[in-house]
Structure formats: C-alpha cells, structure tokens
Amino acid sequence: MDKRNKEWLVINVDGTITRHLGNRRPSYEQIRKIVDMVERIPEFKRYEDRPCVAYCDENGKTKNLLLNELATTAWHEQLAKTGRPFDPVLLVGPVVIDFTRSSKRV
Q: Which pTM value belongs to this model?
C-alpha cells in the first residue's frame, strides 16, 4: 500500500461509516478518542473483503453504549466462517476498523 493511502474507518452506531485516508496510521490516541477504553476485537480480521484490525470500547456495555448492528453483523459473519462455536456477543458503541494493521493469520 502506498504511503499516502493509510485508510481506516469508524462504523458508527447509526450505521454510518466515517472514512479516514492519509499518510499515517491512526495513533492510539486517535483510536482512544473514538472508543475510549481500547480493546482489540478478537477474530475481526476482514472488512470490505480486506484484512484489518478492529477496536471497540472495552467497557461499552457498562457505559450503556448503543448496539452497533453493522459492526456486530460483520463480526458474527467472520466468526461463523471459522466453524468454531462462539458466544453471540454484541458490539456496542463506535468500532474502529484499521486497514493499516492486520493480523498475519488473515
């Protein structure tokens, strides 16, 4: 990927997507401003058929953040493809999708 094309996005709880494109990865501080208590979402490795890493607010449920239906659906679809059983955990609050970092096991 070209240095000028460091893309990341935010899936908002209302289903809108805010895209960010620039020459740098999002910093931890940028991610923290969006999701507060940063937690990497396990097994969320692809979005829009591209490798990625996804983050949410670790304490989102205790903060009563709203359900993020779009992000939850995308994550559950990936979990279902693994063939392993999973708890139907719901993602709440905004979710950051970072295409500049990806798991080697994608």
A: 0.89
